[in-house]
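Is this the right way to post structure tokens for a design question? Let me know if I should format differently. Anyway, here goes:
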């Protein structure tokens, strides 16, 4: 089949996600610069009976973006199309990285009200997997989307918002990459703001016993628990009018500390019982004193993921937070062979009405667990993973879509009241399954 004059796919491309935990070898890899080019790619895929996977920053720690057929990387479709200062809204192409959008918005005196930890991610991908941060008055990132345009498998462009194609809009705000190709996204913004971040030590008992106080006291409250100990670092982030400031020496200590951590965790791969001492040592070294920092919002929300890791992150009803965390702690105490790297990061998000949102119709607590891969070396994690998943399922948990999880369609139908609604929209928009892959087949079949 001859290729379109515009579009050339690259063969021999190897895709790997950021953590290098998943990868694939697409038959052809495309970086289109226009809607016409994308339509040509879809035509070619249809003629050759190939599937199509769209990828942004490739940050998802799962195989959600992997394919052996056609891969479209949207990085060249990354413009800011419109800034509406009156409505405080911005319309962007789906391939724009949030790191670029943050800088653009600040030139207009605007900002996104909430951001995840990483901004080297594409706008369409961020909403597609339900990226979140923390703050009980704030929803996951897709709740900031007020409109989007979707190119379907048939080549039709659909405008979607609360008032136009409302059902498709509720599906497409968290689309899993399976409804079509998100061409543009319109975000609701807020006036630019600075954040005052305060981190201070506490204990797991104290935080869990006074959880509501913490949630009321700080707009973007989160805490880090150091497994195999009672140690907790509480982090408050709140808007401020004070001028930017930071303890530069602390950041230097922090960077050096992390390189030391990687070395020690590598040693612990030979002597796993060291992990609990390493967790305690690092709490003492980096988190046992109070630290303050003031900067423009996106610089506080974002932090550097220093090295490769395996991650799981489930959302449970907020009222289950204490019970679930104490159960995880007890499981580690009763099973000396099971080791867990720090931190278990605990964050909170407001309920919403997005069909596949882990926060669908309930305020939620996200419990994020990590196992690092020091110098790229894999560490045993299966027992920890399965124990954690078991606890999350028991407490009504729903997995973060970007992370690896073992849920099947049967599980997801139980977890998501609107799951079947989503499926019927997907089947209508993509009847031949052009946008499916192995990850999504587990979800839908």
């Amino acid at each position: 089949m001859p290729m379109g004059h515009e579009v050339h796919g690259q063969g021999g491309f190897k895709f790997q996600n950021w953590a290098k935990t998943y990868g694939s070898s697409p038959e052809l890899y495309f970086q289109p610069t226009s809607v016409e080019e994308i339509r040509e790619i879809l035509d070619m895929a249809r003629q050759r009976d190939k599937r199509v996977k769209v990828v942004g920053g490739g940050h998802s720690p799962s195989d959600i973006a992997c394919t052996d057929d056609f891969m479209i990387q949207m990085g060249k479709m990354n413009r800011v199309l419109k800034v509406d200062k009156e409505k405080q809204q911005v319309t962007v192409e789906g391939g724009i990285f949030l790191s670029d959008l943050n800088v653009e918005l600040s030139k207009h005196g605007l900002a996104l009200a909430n951001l995840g930890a990483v901004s080297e991610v594409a706008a369409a991908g961020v909403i597609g997997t339900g990226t979140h941060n923390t703050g009980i008055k704030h929803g996951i990132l897709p709740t900031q989307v007020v409109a989007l345009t979707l190119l379907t498998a048939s080549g039709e462009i659909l405008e979607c918002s609360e008032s136009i194609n409302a059902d498709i809009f509720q599906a497409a705000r968290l689309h899993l990459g399976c409804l079509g190709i998100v061409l543009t996204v319109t975000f609701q913004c807020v006036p630019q703001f600075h954040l005052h971040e305060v981190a201070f030590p506490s204990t797991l008992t104290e935080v869990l016993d006074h959880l509501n106080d913490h949630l009321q006291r700080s707009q973007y409250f989160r805490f880090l628990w150091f497994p195999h100990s009672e140690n907790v670092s509480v982090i408050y982030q709140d808007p401020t009018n004070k001028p930017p400031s930071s303890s530069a020496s602390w950041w230097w200590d922090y960077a050096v500390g992390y390189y030391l951590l990687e070395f020690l965790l590598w040693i612990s791969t030979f002597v796993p019982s060291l992990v609990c001492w390493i967790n305690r040592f690092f709490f003492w070294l980096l988190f046992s004193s109070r630290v303050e920092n003031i900067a423009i919002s996106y610089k506080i929300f974002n932090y550097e993921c220093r090295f490769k890791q395996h991650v799981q992150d489930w959302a449970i009803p907020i009222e289950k937070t204490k019970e679930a965390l104490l159960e995880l702690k007890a499981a580690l105490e009763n099973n000396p062979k099971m080791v867990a790297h720090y931190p278990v990061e605990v964050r909170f998000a407001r309920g919403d009405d997005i069909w596949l949102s882990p926060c669908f119709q309930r305020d939620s607590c996200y419990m994020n667990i990590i196992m690092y891969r020091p110098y790229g070396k894999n560490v045993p994690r299966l027992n920890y993973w399965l124990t954690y998943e078991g606890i999350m399922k028991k407490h009504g948990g729903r997995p973060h879509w970007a992370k690896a999880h073992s849920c099947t369609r049967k599980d997801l139908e139980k977890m998501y009241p609107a799951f079947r609604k989503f499926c019927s929209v997907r089947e209508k928009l993509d009847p031949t399954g052009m946008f499916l892959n192995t990850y999504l087949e587990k979800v839908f079949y």
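Format looks fine. Someone answered above. Worth noting: The domain at 194-399 is CATH 3.40.462.10 (Vanillyl-alcohol Oxidase; Chain A, domain 3). The radius of gyration is 22 Å.
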